[in-house]
Amino acid sequence: MSQTLMNTKLDQFRSKLTPSKVKIDQTLLDHADAYLNGREFPTTRDEFWKYTRLTKISNLQINVNASIIQSIPEAAIIHPNAQKIVFENGVYRKDLSDNIHQLSGVQFSDKGNSNFSFQEEVFYALNYKYSTDAITIDIESKTVLKDPIHLILISSGEGSVSMPRIAINADKFSESEIIVSTHNVNSQNCLTNVVIEVDVQENAKLTINKVQNEKSTNFSVFNERVDQALNSCFMLNTLTLNGSWVRNNVRVNVKGQNVETHLLGAYVTNESQHVDNHTLIDHLAPNCQSNELYKGVLDGKSTGVFNGKVFVRKDAQKINAFQSNGNVLLSDDATINSKPELEIYADDVKCSHGSTTGQLDEDAVYYLRTRGLSEKSARHLLVTAFIGDVLEKVEDEHVVKYAESALSERYGWSF
Asked: CA-CA to 246 of 20 to 30 Å: which in 161, 223, 228, 306?
């Protein structure tokens, strides 16, 4: 590592990483390298990171950990019939994964996708430059998958850094579900930095259920980049159940007419946890609709961020866009920073956004207590009903049951 590449904390962080051996277009790698050289980790002066500090990430003691898991942990099984693809510390574990090649209508390869242009963002660039492994999933035209494909991302050991690249291509008239989940085995102070690039083609329907359930000493960053074509439908459900520090960057480019986009999120935090959801839906074509609903419950000294932006471009007339963020603070020390945004350049649209933050309704608590519930049970019931507003919109009942079970185990809630 040259002396020039040791001037900033980001340079020092990079000096501990191994350059990617994944086959990625050299032009993209050059862009990533040029973007990162001499750059510093973003600070709170950067609007994109205004409420999220990166000190814990920049100070990580990075280690290269050998594989330690011999089987998939029971806690990582969400759907009993799903076809499983396993990563450990960002490395594809073929020996633990199902044979996706035998799945009718699906093409699978261990190569990255170069169809997307480079995105100027630190963690996106780090993933390009230092990818630990990559896969591409192609759902063939007119394929309807009965059961989902489950991507299981596991952190193990001390100070591991995982940077998998995942490409998902849903071809014309296909219908499929992908589950992406994060877990840990005997790990702490690990970073998972994922890039997921999604292409939803004409008349295709794709649902991604993302379940974040890592240990409260681990950190994760997700960058999802989605392109939608004519008549397509895309849904992303992000359920953040645990994790010390979690950042989700979602960008959806609506490129065709008659498109549906649905982003749902539920996040539950406690102690000193931090969860940051940044979303952007860019309406580039007319006659489309997007729905965005994120809800959070924050306790202890935890912090949360929601920054959702919807663009409606000049030629994107007749857009129906709805965006809502609601939060319940269970302690006086919990904090949420919410900023829903609309940027509209068309004049024939129906767009709305809103944000609400507060504590539990004491009148509602009192009412439930008059019906025989204890104060604790009454509060639990109101919290689960609040989060349930998101969970009931998740179509996969196995994902819902997993989330409810994880929250019940952690907080004692009953759904």
From this structure: 228
